[in-house]
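Honest question from a wet-lab person: if I give you the sequences of every part of a complex, can you actually get the arrangement of the whole thing, not just the pieces? Trying it with mine:
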Amino acid sequence: MSATTTALPSSPPGFMSRSAVLVAVAAMLLGLAMVAGPRYGALLAIGMGFGLALEGFRFGFTGPWRRMILNRDASGLLAQLICIAIVALFAFPMLANNGAEIKGAHAPIGLAMIGGAFVFGASMQIVMGCGSGTLVNAGSGNAVAALALPFFAIGSFGGAYHLTWWTSLGSLPVIALSGTSGLAITLAGLAAIGVLAILLGARNSWRIPARYWMAVAALAGLAILHLAVAGQPWGVVYGLGLWVAKGVVAMGADLSGSPFWAAPGNAERITASVLTDVTSLTDFGLIGGAALVAWWRAGLGSPIGKYPLRAWASVIIAGLLLGYSSRLAFGCNIGAFFSGIGTGSLHGWVWFVAAFAGSWFGIKLRPFLGLESRR
Amino acid sequence: MIRGHVVFLTLIGVAVFVGLDFANSAPLNPYNAPPLFSLGSGLAATGAHCAAPPPAQ
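Yes, you can. This is the full assembly:
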């Protein structure tokens, strides 16, 4: 069964309403900078920028992979690769020249990492949203994403809780490309995948639409700014797990049994304000930025999709799997694919292959789960 | 139910969570906050990231 997408007529917000909301958003960002510190206000603003760009230009990660697999439309995947290449052009020199101030999204390749990426790829196609996509879709009124989001967070908490056990199953040391030669290898790898996508894609599907180019410019610029401000690349799923960790600790749970959550850095973040956590702030910004675009467009009057019960149950399970698997995989499309490859981590490449294979299965599963008509 | 209701519930959920966390977490101190840019600060990046390897057991 497919979603009902008939839009109800609704008038766009007027000049006064738009001005009032923009002033309120600016006041909120300035207020956070004053109360918590300028870096945190800036990170919330950068997160909102990500949300504005992804929703405003209707760009993402899950949809382009789906169109590549189903329709052999390579344009979205090519845009992603170009965006990562631009980030890498700036990130590699920043990492090489700034020591401990800047760190990459570097993670080890392992059995659980590969399996996690595969499951994440399948789950993101079921929900039709990756890490950033689920936040953006929830912020713009997509009921599937809004239902998946809390379970994504619970799964992320659980995956992190068990992460040490999973990595003990077999894991290589962290391998990261660096310097000019590392950048050259990264750009050559991205180009090779791009050529492969063009060869496998339908005729003329290599033509990238203008809105994708604008999204690429915005996302690359914001990602480089994020790296300079936070000292680390853009990520999503750590923050989601942290929210649940904070919740269970507030309810009296003891997390000392988890090597991950009991580690000093993570235990400190549980007690610190969420308004000082890098990924939480950009996650909030993604939701807020997408909501702002959806409201601005007057696109909030559409009824939500109608699905059978088994579809909603599938979304809950897929949400849990998204969170759990993304921690095993050391990131989602953003933390592993986008930021991992963009900062030279070999795990980002392995993540891409495994998640793309998983996506194929996820797309095949959707009709059987009641999320779309059988072809 | 329309998309606007979903957005409203999502934003309310975030606001309630942030409010509860604000009330229960360590107080914010802007005078002890890191500089705006990590780049050029001379300070090590200390934020958490999903790609960070787990702590050794």
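Two things worth pointing out. Residues 1-7 of chain A have pLDDT under 50 and may be disordered. Chain A touches chain B through 87 residues (CB under 8 Å).
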